[in-house]
Amino acid sequence: MEITERVDALIRPSLEDMGFDLVRVHFSGGGRAVLQVMCERPDGSMTLDECAEVSRTVSALLDVEDPIPGAYELEVSSPGIDRPLTRLGDFDRYAGHEAKVELAVAVEGRRRFRGIVKGTSGDEVVIAVENGDVALPFSQIRAAKLVLTDALIAAHAAAHPQDGGPGDGTGAGQEEE
């Protein structure tokens, strides 16, 4: 089992007990090893105080179990507006918005797609691309992310008026690439 799977299995139950959905666990080794934990409330919200609460809980769990050899930095954040799409249900939740999808194996001669998310059909994700709709096997998606558009910003602002919109100064949801 790789590090991200071990950490996911270790922290998911506690985060769910706290009322959070775990969106992604990502570990990058190398010179500056970083463990990134993304989570949110079921309604998609996440405050700076909640990030700190999650960070303390995750730190305590990792200190006890020690699933990562060596030193690393822990980063806890919300997924942000232009969030990664990591669960099959994310593609239904964000239907109508533009996304970039990268596959492990080519479909119709391509591994990268950009288009409007139409939702899911069984275990496939349907994306409207320039030539029509394409069904992508969820199991073959290596990475998927919403594209920051005016429509996505407006939908987020309507759903979360308490956030103050992009650049609300909390730092929650910001991610480096």
Automatic annotation (TrEMBL):
Residues 10-82 form the Ribosome maturation factor RimP N-terminal domain. Residues 85-149 form the Ribosome maturation factor RimP C-terminal domain. It is found in: Cytoplasm. Pfam families: DUF150_C, RimP_N. The keyword Iron-sulfur does not apply. Its main location: cytoplasm. Gene3D superfamilies: Ribosome maturation factor RimP, C-terminal domain, RimP-like superfamily, N-terminal. Keywords: Cytoplasm, Ribosome biogenesis. Required for maturation of 30S ribosomal subunits. PANTHER family: RIBOSOME MATURATION FACTOR RIMP (PTHR33867). Belongs to the RimP family. This is Ribosome maturation factor RimP. It comes from Marinibaculum pumilum.
